[in-house]
Amino acid sequence: MTGRRLSDETLTGRPPVDASMTLLNEVMRQPLDPSYAAAARRRATDEPRTSRPLGVAALLVLAICLGLVTASAAVQLRAPQPAVLAARALLEEEIVSRRDQVEDKAAQNAALQTSIERLRDSALETTDPELLSVLRRDSVVSGTTAVRGPGLIITIEDGASAAEDQRALVQDTDLQVVVNALWEAGAEAIAINDQRLTATTAIRSAGSAILVDLVGVSGPYTVVAIGDRNGLETGFARSSAMRQLEGFASSYGIKTTLSGQDDVALRAGKLPVLYSASAIDDDNGSQ
């Protein structure tokens, strides 16, 4: 077997044995990235970091441009569009017009109801005065006829901090408590902001609004009750409703004023429409 000696040229031309492990060798010999190493040397020697004025200026200009674009977009989004403004104005006009129409119809209805009652009274005065007396009494109790007499006026106002604290707002339940206390004190007729309470009247809320017989009312809320003046004043002053209002005044600033009156007038309430119930004609229950 003949051996062959490799020349130096042949050995020089061959790649290193670990040529395929260059990346691993680089990681082992220089684990720190050159830029990190340079930053570490600067911190160690307190070498001031060189800055690029052109780059800083470019970043500043870019930030200003982005801010202007963002502000412009926000202004455009918040600004109402002309079409929206026109539609809103039209809707407001329609609401005002419809409200005026409702008020006119309500006034016409009240006038017609008064005329009907007068015709009925004139017809029954001679034919059946006893029935006329019963009808008048029932209409007063049911709240469907206008009444006047001595009574008590209670005014309730929202607290000064109502805009920030909803607890300072007068709630529908507060009016319910006041009305119940007045009935208990002997009231014969009650109205809230000129809305007469009848046998079917509901006091409730719709969002932040208070509805009395489906009619929106706003503060200050004026509750007018007709009855014996002294009895109403004494009975309401001793009621739990008065104590509740006094607590609201001290806690939330809700104001309540009471005023006895020798003569107040209440208009008639809505005549309820019966869809299912009907009157019984005799004692046997036949219709």
TrEMBL record:
GO cellular component, one term: plasma membrane
Pfam families, alphabetized: DUF881
Domain of life: Bacteria
TM spans (from-to): 54-75
Protein keywords: Membrane, Transmembrane, Transmembrane helix
UniProt xrefs under InterPro entries: DUF881
Family statement drawn from the similarity comment of this UniProt entry: Belongs to the UPF0749 family.
PANTHER family, alphabetized: UPF0749 PROTEIN RV1823 (PTHR37313:SF1), UPF0749 PROTEIN RV1825 (PTHR37313)
Name the UniProt record assigns to this protein: Uncharacterized protein YlxW (UPF0749 family)
Originating organism: Sanguibacter antarcticus
